[in-house]
Amino acid sequence: MEVGVDFTVLRYFVAAADGGSVTAGAQAVHVSQPSVSRQIQALERELRLTLFSRQGGRLQLTAAGRAFLPMARDLLAREEKARRAAGYLASGAMQDIAITTLGTTLTDVIAPFLVTFTPEDPMPSVRTVGLDRLFDAPSSTDLYIAAAAPPPWLESRPIAELPVFACVRADHPLSGRGAVELADLLDHELLVLDKDFPARRALDSAAELIRSAPRRTHRFFSPEVAMAVAAAGRGIAVVTDDPRFGLEALRILTPEGPLRIHLCGAWDPHHHARGQLESLCRRLETFCIDRYGEDVSPRH
Fold this sequence. Notes:
Helix 1 (7-19) crosses helix 2 (22-29), helix 1 packs across helix 3 (33-47) and helix 1 (7-19) crosses helix 4 (63-90). The chain is elongated, with a radius of gyration of 30 Å. A hairpin with a 2-residue loop joins strand 12 (248-254) and strand 13. It has 3 domains: 7-90, Orthogonal Bundle (Arc Repressor Mutant, subunit A), CATH 1.10.10.10; 96-161 and 262-295, D-Maltodextrin-Binding Protein, domain 2 (3-Layer(aba) Sandwich), CATH 3.40.190.10; 165-258, Periplasmic binding protein-like II (D-Maltodextrin-Binding Protein, domain 2, 3-Layer(aba) Sandwich). By secondary structure, the chain is of the alpha/beta class. The strands form 3 sheets. Strands 7, 8, 9, 10, 11, 12 and 13 form a 7-stranded mixed beta sheet that branches. A 5-stranded mixed beta sheet has the order 4-3-5-14-6. It has 9 helices and 14 strands. The longest helix is centred in the N-terminal third of the chain and has 28 residues, at 63-90. It has helices at residues 7-19, 22-29, 33-47, 63-90, 103-114, 182-185, 198-209, 223-231, 274-292, and strands spanning 52-55, 58-61, 96-101, 123-128, 143-146, 155-163, 165-168, 179-181, 189-193, 216-220, 236-239, 248-254, 257-258, 260-267. One of its GO terms (cellular component) is protein-DNA complex.
């Protein structure tokens, strides 16, 4: 037996059950008593169930009615949730936002940015992936935060040009300089990340432009571990993360300027909340400028 869901009738049923009479239920939903009574009787016929027994002018839920009542409440709650979600969709807003990003971007950019969210912002969820798989899940992502050029079918906006740092101990010969020329840096023992990390790709591309390469490298799959080893005096960690373990961050200077990665936001141009997604990217740009300085602005 197939039963169509009439949420109005379910609302009458729940109101009568809570009020203990059709009259009380009718008053709660602001409908006449005869109308509520007819609707409940029609519901019983449709369900082929007796939901109430009538004793002394009051309604008593039958066993079937007691079993059906929580189901009716659940359906009404789901309907209300669907209506709210539809309202958000119609207004071009989101209740929830799914972000896909890189692990290193999550630690130093996305997570601190989420601290600034208010109850008026969508509830965020964040998935981290490798650079080569960043754009592989369009159906489950609202916003990409990428240190890579997005594919042409996505709309995008630049967010920041974040520096790549050479992190050294206070007693390292390069300490205190504030910056180091790329050619000089390549002569040192470097603690580099795997090629799946934007910092490593930026370093390799810059070295190729000056037709050089690091003298000696050790590969790591975690910026934190690379910096920990640098703090132990085993080399210079090349990362985009904020320095840890008492390390000093040096800017890396190339013939084209400081070595940077280009962070951008990207989204489906047909997304119902594309305006809100672009607004979040503008907020993230401002956050990065406040955190790292005006020179990280993509319009600097």
